[in-house]
Amino acid sequence: MSNETKTQAESELDLQAILKKAEQQTEFPDVPLDEFTPPTYEEWKENCITLLKGAPFEKKMFTKTYEGITFDPMYFRNTTEEILPRTSFPGMDDFLRGSRPNGYIKSPWGIAQACDETMPAENNELLKYELEKGSTIYHIKLDQSTLTGQDAREAEKPGDEGCSVTTLDDMHVLLDGLKLDEQPLYLYAGQTALPLLSMVAAVRRASGKDMQAVCGFIGADPIGELAERGTLSATLSDRYDELAECAKWAIANAPELRTIMVRSDVYSRGGANDIQEASYTIDTAVTYLREMQKRGLSIDEAASQIMFGFSMGANFFLQIAKLRAMRPIWAQIIAAFGGSTESQRMHVHARPALFFKTVYDPYVNMLRNTTEIFSGVVGGIDSFENAPFDEPIRKGDVFSRRIARNVQIILQEEFGLLQPIDPAGGSWAVESLTKQVKEKIWEAFQTVEGAGGIVEALKAGKPQQAIGEVLAERFKNAELRRDRIVGNNMYPNMTEKLLDPRTEDWAENKKARTEAIEAYLADIDGKYRAEKLEALSKAQTDRVTAAIAAAEAGATLPELWAALPKTGEAPSVEKITPHRWSERFEGLRHRTEKYAADKGDNVRIFLANMGPIPQHKARADFTTGFLQVGAFEVLRNDGFKTTDEAAAAAAESGADAVVICSTDATYPEIVPDLAPKLHKALPAATVYLAGAAPKELLETYNAAGIDDYISVRANCYKILQFLQQKKGMMA
Asked: Is the model's pTM score more than 0.90?
């Protein structure tokens, strides 16, 4: 044994001895803290005001959210004593503290990395690979043509957002070798689950297996699809009938499988705040409960079929509070319907909110996703899909999927997040926020109910309007850089090259899918298939069994959709358009980069830095960052001693705009002299002043020729957009 190895072994023995001794110690000396005097709130506030150096305490130390909640700078026991969960335990009562008594200790949250390869065979390999590398759920993401029941041969972009499935053979290939008896299957089916559920069941039966042990969800959300797309391909009543048929069949044949997936994505992606997202989603679930009861299901049966899908947003503590608040609300609702304690447990699958992800500086998305997973885990999710960091740009690759998957594994295995049960429980701040969020969600839920429920509210355009108002506020705060979007409206990386979108060859995809579909259909008995499809169209009950028979006879997915009864005109509402908080700044920068590439020119900004470097540097640096958000060319220098020198250099630069940079103390002398000279030197240029003018000098500066001001209060987006328009980059 080498000396190094021997020393290491001895160190390990010493450590084990220390740990053993520590475990045996049960008595500890009393450590008096009398020498420390607990500071009062007023004392803390006084010291804080001193450190703020004149900035208003109420403005700097209290944070307002889009939910109408204000974060206090400090929370105290005496103000939260009454709401602390002293007699509530995880997995009990109203499930505030989690759905399971032992948290994640015996059953970790599920790692559900979405697999979205276009071809069924390739996606099958990806599903197996993901499970081998640490995922614990087979999570299949389908493309838009599959989700809307369209034949891949007719799709404009087969495989655009996921896997393309048209025939039973596609489903055979997709599920081949998957251990569905051992691992959950997650498959979002769009507005109806019946065709895809039938195909999965047909594949299982062809393999000599049933659906008894299959768990997870093959779930539909027709109301969510209506809000997202603006219409459906059948009436809501028809879709509710199909939900009920799937639920009844699953209860009898696949008791571990859920068939209703209530997703909040449509509201989150529209820019909704957390209260709107939660209340609209819960009201959707309540609508399904009522409709299932009308169709013969008990409340316990209906509740057993519902899985919730929530987006985790950017505000860490609000996400925790949102999850903790929703569980008691759902339990209260189910109890009011007469449901059992078991039915009151809310099952939540979550993912990072796409709204808060960016195309520029996309690697920051890794950090955003990580905090969102963290908040979801602390809040008590059952499973999580961590999106690849390049999700706003393209489908993930081996690297981005590995990073996404490993974040969850690291949190489970290295950060020890499987051990604490309700880690936020008892936190003065989180308990206070949970109470506020719960009350606001309940109030918003009652408002929607008062409007006739979520469907009537959508028809009246009320959620669309409310979400639109929040979206406008988000965009305004981004323009003013109150909301800081790293790499976009703040701290742009000027050397960045956009990631390759790796756009798929849609024509090639269509050709490959067409060949596979037609090869399969060539061996199908058309007459027998037509008989089974007719039987499906006439079936009054047990439609899933009829659909399974049709699928086994060779019916394609769109044929199964077409055979489902349609009893009236499909509903129509104003759709909730998806957005991302950075999209307007991304468009701004992309416009500049395209113009520069096409024309070999750019908006050129000359900095009229006055005085030595210490005098102008702070304002020059701020201005540079401000203007580089638009990818403009900023012409920097070490400063000028005289206004004549600055004006001459500006004239030589031929810049489109000039920014005077110095200090508030020197501006009264510099600005009246320099601004007119700059306008004379560059008659077409816009002249800015770095910093906000005092009220008493504003008229003087404007009269001298200052066109606008670049400061922390300036509207960054509008200033950059104005310069683009002036340059001819946009109409």
From this structure: yes
